Amino acid sequence: MYDEHHRQEPSHGIDVTVKRRLELSSMKAEEENVIDDLTPRDASWAVRNEPAFHPGLLAMNPISVTVSSMRTKSWKLLRSCREQAVRVALLALFTLLLVGVLINFGSGRLVSRGSGSLEQSIFKVVLDAGSTGTRIHVFKFRRRDGDITLERTADPEMTFFRKVDGGLSAYKENPEEAREGLEWLLKEASIGVPEAVGCQALLLATAGLRLIPPQAAEELLQVSRRVIRESPFTLVRDEDVAVLDGSEEGLYMWRSVDFIYGAHSSALTSKPSAVVDLGGGSVQLAYRTLKGSQVSPSDRNKFTDYLRPTYPIGAAAPSTSSEKRMKDYFLASAASIRPQSMADGPLYVHSWLGYGLEAARQRVLQENTNGSSRIHLIFKVPPHASYHPTIYPNTMTMQRCLATVRAALDLHQDCGATQASECAFNGAWRGPIDPSSYTFRVFSYVFDVARSNGLVPTGAHEVVVTVAEFRDVARVRCAETVGGSLPWACLDAVYVTSLLSDGFGIPDTQPTVVAERLSYDKGGLLYAAWPLGAALERLDFVVALRFLAMIRRPAASRGVHRSSPIGVIKAPGSNKNTPPRGGGGQKAAGGGGGGLALPLQKKFGQHLLKNPGILDKIIEASDIKSTDTVLEIGPGTGNLTMRLLELAKKVVALEIDPRMAAEVKKRAQTSGRMNLKVIEGDALKTAFPVFDVCVANLPYQISSPFTFKLLAHRPVFRCGVIMFQKEFGERLVARVGEENYGRLAINCQLFSKVTRVCNVSKGSFNPPPEVDSMIVKFVLHKDPINVDFPEFDGLLRIAFTRKNKTLHSSFMNKAVIKVLEENYKTYCSLHSQPVQYQGPAFKAHVENTLRGSGLAESRAMKIDIDQYLALLLEFHRNGIHFVNVSDPSTTTNKAATDAFSMEVDSA
């Protein structure tokens, strides 16, 4: 509202107020374009685990902070306008609050403490995909008045930690097999630290993935991204699942150590830290160059890859121009919160790929093989010696091993530096480091070598040693007789000694800190590893993007539904449900979706179950307990899913149609159901998680292979309630002597009790399928019968070739006898037994075995499971086997991987 003194100042005929609004609108549009470029694909990430803010702050456009820089020009106008004067005052206050909030905001909870200060808990989940295993760390940071501290997420450890053996690279031939370990780690983290659910998760791989072909590595990363998206945590952007280059790994490790030792003093913190991290595939060196360090201009230009500026915590070097603009915008007025001084020079970081301990073993052995003076590092026997039960004299000495290690390190290769003393090994620059001016902190395999050689007291996680002590250990280990220590003890001790002394120039008598874990907060321990640095690096920048994404989602906060590209959601209180153009009014399989209209995909066999009474019967038959994990195949848009979420501890919904997967997830989130995990994929190709109950509404064309996969799943689940085509269901539940009794029924009933729940008429679906359906329940046997399944199924294949004929008639078939005879000869050969039966004699042998069982004149459909098992045992006792009988034209004994493709479905 303007008062009587309101005035305008001319500006080329344009109202100043209008001009200012145009300027602000232009700037706002420019910033929103940047925001659009950076908004994550997963729109759900910003609404999880959000802190509470003052409504006025949430409503404020973030670009308003730029107004303060323009106040001088328009002071007269603003002073004469009471409304704008009040606005400026509020904006000035909000600007200060905004900067503070951006510094104090993250994937956590924001609270006010006493004196008006803001205190916040921030969680980060980091998966370290190393060359020998994958580890998960859950970090909890507390931020108050510009200070960051680390909080406990476990006891006595500072951080929650789990590990699975075997690196991701072990799954390069079949990336999907990496799922199980990753899913287990993420599940453990969500259970161990439930407060962290919804926070940012990242997976960073190290040397293991750097050493495999890029395409194979990317396939593993894609699987990892899908696993994280399906987990209770948030993948903010695809770049959070990546392969770290060695320098980044070294940088993060240095950041971890700098954070711990920079904030908590000890006897060796008077000097800056130089960090050495010896992994399995690579080794890194990182340190901050001192202010007085002299680097010649030519060296600075030549070794730019070794030196990098350091940013405040949470302000990693931007990778794109738009990210740089955003960083400048949000961090311009943020004070540094690094524990140590930033008055020193840039950070030196370098990684030597192929010089981790395990890779170095291979490198040294290769050098030993190709060298002119060979040594024997493992068993210490002369070259080309044959094995005999005698002990050869020890030809190993520490000096001979050291010479080979030094050759493998290639210490004499010139790095091109102005001063030769600044060259490390393998032609790499060591930088302007005076080792005596630093405290070297050495981690990972160096600690393992120290501990295995008695340099670490029992129960200690950190020790101060010298290179001279490692050298003494090497002398002892290399002088031992065969069997006196672990096979690699001599080589490992020599390699660590040479790496620290020759490679990094540490004097023999200089105290060096060797640690496995870092001590923090009155004895709290955390693993000495780079993931802490990676988490610290993501505290601020992602925070700024997250805050902007939340502000730019006003519709969600007001309960307004945006238009959906895949259908129409019925708004609360609305009676309208208009299908999208081309939708045809048809709806998704799986029980609808609260008024969602979607065009159906014929290739997925989608039909809408419209009979709510059938849902009741599925729920009743499933007998779900509050502690159960339910696997639902084909949730559609979620009518059954919503019922399951009310009963089970967790529901994992596997959906092949991405539209349905997105909709069922949205529906659960809208209803506040956080116990749903949606996996997008093919049920036949996707590895099933661990579950207690399975419910499924299947496309009928996959009934046979799905049934096989389900019953073969381990660990054994409790029950499955599955909808099949009625004809297929009749064959599943058939009992001995019934018309539909066959291989399908026998093989399924071998593993489970199979019963009919109910028939479902085709009129219960929209659109109706061509056939009726049946719901079948499988209750798995607690103690499955221990039987060679391919053999058992091979026997059944012969028996049911003509199920109304006698077994004698089926087994005396010429082609069957031929295959069985060749199997018999193979069996005799493998067991060093003479072939007693050939030709007519073998046929008589089969006939006698069959008659000895008492089943020769029985018909296949009249024989029960126990009798078939007894018959198989009788055949095996007589050397008669059945693998590969499905194809009498070949004699190759392959595994019967198609054993459950029992009879062709007439879907």
UniProtKB/TrEMBL annotation:
Annotated PROSITE patterns: RRNA_A_DIMETH, SAM_RNA_A_N6_MT
Residues involved in S-adenosyl-L-methionine binding: 607, 609, 634, 655, 682, 697
Taxonomic lineage: Eukaryota, Sar, Alveolata, Perkinsozoa, Perkinsea
Residues reported in the UniProt entry to bind ATP: 280-284
Keywords: ATP-binding, Hydrolase, Membrane, Methyltransferase, Nucleotide-binding, RNA-binding, rRNA processing, S-adenosyl-L-methionine, Transferase, Transmembrane, Transmembrane helix
InterPro entries: GDA1_CD39_NTPase (IPR000407), KsgA/Erm (IPR001737), rRNA_Ade_Mease_Trfase_CS (IPR020596), rRNA_Ade_methylase_Trfase_N (IPR020598), rRNA_adenine_dimethylase (IPR011530), SAM-dependent_MTases_sf (IPR029063)
Membrane-crossing segments per the record: 85-105
UniProt xrefs under HAMAP family: 16SrRNA_methyltr_A
UniProt family annotation: Belongs to the GDA1/CD39 NTPase family.
Active site (UniProt): 249
GO molecular function: ATP binding; hydrolase activity; RNA binding; rRNA (adenine-N6,N6-)-dimethyltransferase activity
Residues covered by region (Disordered): 567-593
Protein name as it appears in the record: rRNA adenine N(6)-methyltransferase
Organism: Perkinsus olseni
Coiled coil regions in record: none
Gene, per the UniProt record: ENTPD6_1
Biased composition (Gly residues): 581-593
Domain of life (superkingdom): Eukaryota
Domain Ribosomal RNA adenine methylase transferase N-terminal residues, every copy: 614-782
Enzyme Commission (EC) number: 2.1.1.-
This protein's record includes keyword Lyase: no
Gene3D superfamilies in the cross-refs: 1.10.8.480, 3.30.420.40, Exopolyphosphatase. Domain 2 (3.30.420.150), Vaccinia Virus protein VP39 (3.40.50.150)
